[in-house]
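Researcher: Last one for today. Full complex below.
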Amino acid sequence: MHSSTHDTQSNPSNPSKHSKRIRNAILAGSAVVGMLAVSACSAASTTNAGGSDDKVTLAQPSWAGAQANIAVAKKLLEDELGVEVDVRQMNETAAFTAMDGGQADAVLEDWHGNPKQLKTFVEKKKSVVSAGELGVKGHIGWYVPKYYADKHPDITNWKNLNKYADDFKTSESKGKGQFIGADPEYSQHDTGIIKNLDLDFTHVPSGSESAQQEEIERLYKAKKPFLTYWWTPQVLQNELELVEVELPKYTKGCNVPVEKADCGYPHVDLEKFMNADFAKNGGDAAEFIKNFKWSNEDQDAVVNYMTQDKMKPEAAAEKWIKENKDVWEAWLPKK
Amino acid sequence: MSAAPTETPVTETPVLDKQPDTTPGGGQSDAAAAVKGVPSRGPGLRARFAGSPKALIVGMALLFAIVTAAVTGNGTWPGGLEVDVKTPLTDLTDWLSLNRTTHPVFLYFLLHISNFAETAYLSLVDLFAAMGWLGVTVVVTLVAWAAAGADLSRRALRTGAIALGALALCGVLQMWEPTMETLSLMTVAVIASAVIGLLLGLASGLSDRCERVLRPVFDVMQIMPAFAYLLPLMLIFGIGQPPALIATVIYAVPPMARLTSLGLRAADPAALEASVSLGATGRQQLLTARLPLARKQMMLGLNQTIMMCLSMVVLASLIGAGGLGDRIYRAMATKDMGMALTAGISVVLIAVLLDRSTAAAGEQLQERVSQVATRAALLLRRGVWLLALVLFVVFALFGTALGQEAWPEAWSVDLTTGIQQGVDWITRELSFMANWSDAFARGVLNPVRSGLIAVPWWALLLLVAAVGWAVGTWRAAMTGVLCLALIGALGLWDASMDTLSQVFAGLALTVLVGVLIGVLAARVPTIERVLRPVLDVMQTMPQFVYLIPVIGLIGQGRAVGVFAAVIYAAPAVIRITTESLKQVDPTVLEASRSLGDTTSQQLFKVQLPLARKGLLVGVNQGVVLVLSMVVIGGMVGGGALGYQVVYGLSKQNLAIGLPAGAAIVCLGLMLDRLSQPREKHGGR
Amino acid sequence: MTDPNTNTAKTTEPTAADPAAPADPAAPAFAVRDLWKVFGPKADRIPGDPAHQALSTAELREKTGCTAAVRDVSFDVRRGEVFVVMGLSGSGKSTLVRTLTRLIEPTSGSIAMDGEDVLGMDKNRLRELRRRQTAMVFQHFGLLPHRSVLDNVAYGLEIQGVGKAERRAKAQEIVEKVGLAGMEERRPTQLSGGQQQRVGLARALAVDPEVLLFDEPFSALDPLIRRDMQEEVIRLHREEGRTMVFITHDLSEALRLGDRIMLMRDGAIVQLGTPEEIVANPADEYVRDFVRDVPREQVISVRRAMRPADAAESGSGKELAPDTLVVDAIEAVASSGEPCRVVEDGRTLGIVDHERLLAVVAGIDGTLADTEAVTV
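Model: Here's the assembly. Have a good evening.
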């Protein structure tokens, strides 16, 4: 150190003390690590508070249909079986991670959006098991608003899409037509479709479902043309009139891998999943969730109470339960 | 800005006699000379280039980049120079998924951490529930009052009132339960961050070697968008509070550590020497002199750490943290704007509560240095602390008997419908803004992006090197070039150029808005006063709350992200601008007035040039803040790197999410180094 | 080894310090020999190398990148004296005083305190030395802002491990001694600069050190307050007779306080002697320049100004002690109207008349003194 000010020199951190301090620090550090190691000799428990017996944790994805499932299930579990229910907001993929780790016991509606996780947790690790079908059929597809399809009826076939591509141009679509992509979490192979069917469209992804909904509603209000990823059942299905664009028929495996995909989407039988331990030891609650099965109409009814009548999910569930005793009685475990 | 409220009689009188001899006092005539020394207009461009070889080289590099871009047209990073990171990352994801609950590393180490975090969180939730709403409100209010001095001074009373008001409002807004969850998360996260930050700060404050190692680590931690590490943490720790808490701690440790280190290093050398000269051992010196002398900085660090914890705790609801963030997240799913905004307001209230209490506590500590409290005040303060403690115990044991666990329903107001209507009205009435955003995207974002993509990669590297060398050192140049090259090697060149174009546009807007409002606030005290709560809200309101309605206004796309970035980053720039303008030597300003400068002359010839350094700091902070928010724009159609991180996060796909996260860090480091005024500044 | 720059007649020849000898009550408070402090890369090589030693500070820096703050310095500090080290900034005086207790490690040489080798002390012994034998007063006070005046004064005792009640009682005593009574509970920031330095002084006194070290303690103070503080130091020294090493760049301060003054320039000693010797007999042009404006009559005594008495004079005239300052002699001569006798133990040593006294005031006594001054 060239500086001739004495302050720096008078500082007691001269080299020898300095290295000594470091040595002390290392000693202290290793002592802490040692203590940790001793305390860690016992294996940590892998089931957390979320998976305790008297409480069921349900993972709730963001869309309204799933909220309807949960609201009804929660109400019945609490009122009829006396089981406390904890609802945690998480997306499909996260739900599987949570079921694997025991932070969630069950998910009531899975769209098979992440085949890789199914393979990992259900097939390989067997930490998550199927709890049967929900009864609701889901469908994904490409949609345009009805006011646009009325004007150009032939757009409902993918072969004619390029003809109208110019109508769909936006500032985000890099000179081609804009295709509004889905929340990244959802199952989709739209980039493959666009590429392999040589469509003059750019896949402009939505970052989240709510963002996509908001965008579609805005365009719908302004009566502008748009082409979007969409699905049923969906909250907005009664507010917005959309028309599906027919894509090449789905055959098993035609969408794997995404880069090679050249087909539309299948109709999915939505499925329930559970943590494996919960399925075995969950008692009545697990039994109830396995039995939980309703139709598109049932789910729509609850969704409509929530969205059109602006009821809180709990109130909507209560109303449906009051009116459909025959449906849900079958779900209760046989005594 | 025609009527300047700061104008005083001084402006008129001395105009008549401009002879320097008549200026009273030597200092003033010096100042007058300084004013004259400020050039009325910079020297011509050519003269500047000739005078500064650095500017010349940057200019040449820029010209070179433009020419080569025009010639080649597309300058993306060649595929041959890319490195495949996808395969190993995919394997890693699979391995983590399969072994997370069974492998010894998890069983004997990581799971202990996450179980501990979860247990701590759950016990706090139980504790708050046991205390009941009455207990929590009373104890928190008392603690806030005590921390601010426990007397009848304006500050202490105001702090107590803010605490009481904030909690009560959260209750009234029917957000009591999630607020308690968020407070529990905050308590665990703040304690952990403060302790770890303190230890790291001690290490880097006392040892130069530690400092050298830790400083770049803190840099990266601060620049790295929290988004980027939520994913790996989720893969390791699963879903829920543990990964959320750990992410929060990672995010919030740097300010505490940095400011502790700064405080230790900035301690009065004379006091330290005095301590040594009296024969103090290292430990005695640390405990009696160094640490107490660093107290002010440490309080500042704690305050910043707390604020960062809060923003992260909200964001971490994406991986299941619960609390207010979860309410917002859930409300967004059903597009329940009313609920989202009420939860957002609660977050802001908690932020104000925590910020004002810690700031008041810090001021109070400082004040104790300058004046000794009377005996009575001291006794009162101790009494209040004791009372708070006693009440805490009493409520913890019998709280629910005294009051209900949750805020009484009768005392609450449901604002959600009103808010929803308000939002609808705004969306309807302001829909013309969609055209603006479209024009912005076409007229600004698109050309900048095409330009960046057109510049050949090697020309851009050269330009970064030139700028880095010109503004900083060869080290800044090296860092910038390495970061950019790494981005190319990760195969994310085009996406990064897209993100970069958004950052540039956002930065330009932020600086424009920030400096403009900052200047106004510096000149008109009323504006500054009114602005303060507005800025608080802009900085602490979770972005999600307003991002979605903004889509309804201007449509999904990059403009939304840029808009959010401006909202998020502008407050910092405004504050720094105001501060640095106010710090301009008043004698210089006085001299300028005495020379008869008009308001705008004062501003452009004196204040802005003299406040340049502060403004540069503002730009540097703006860059980092804009980047972090542009990335969040990935959730609302911003595309580019942000979208890839969101994709990776929601699909738990390390192969997509991690490289994109790394690219963002690289962009951040590069931008930070290229915009850093030469002196290194302490905590942000 | 004598310093090449020191061509003055030193009043004391340093006695060789024996590092092996035990603490010796007869030994000087500090005995410093051949001391070097060099800052810079590979500083060790400089002191031993005659080629380097010959270079000036600027040349040395250019050639080696090293700065010699203290160059080959040897001196003794006697017990009970006020030893002033004087020099302009950059002369190495602050570094020198810090090497005495190894706040700065010297590069080479030896230091003995009370005959005990300071450089050979281990860490604990050195700490003991700093705790009990020396205490330092700093230019920028170095007070702890978060402590009250009383706790600042008691700080040294706290470091020593003295119990709270005892150290506060002791501190209270000292606080009163330095005139801060009634301010015990204030914080340093509430005090004026002079008061703060009184706290610094009290803190040093509280540990009852053998030697007080002052590093330009008053140079940050206003002139009037500075004078007060100097009086304070003089008073303390008179009352307690503690050894003091006092660093200053202010010549008048040095002359006021110093029993002996060591003048430094570029790290080396230029001259060491009593104030009178330095003013009357500057060692070189540099010192001469320095003392040019000193009111000589206030420094030089009649012993130096007198001429031999002839037989006629030795019986009559007013008597003056040899230490009488010229300024006082002028008064005596003027009032009596005749030359005065300088008398010691009843013996007349010489005569001062107004011619001799005027010569002192005019600064032309040096030539006279060289030829005619009486050696006593």
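Confidence is low (pLDDT under 50) at residues 1-17, 47-52 of chain A. The domain at 139-267 of chain A is CATH 3.40.190.100 (D-Maltodextrin-Binding Protein; domain 2).
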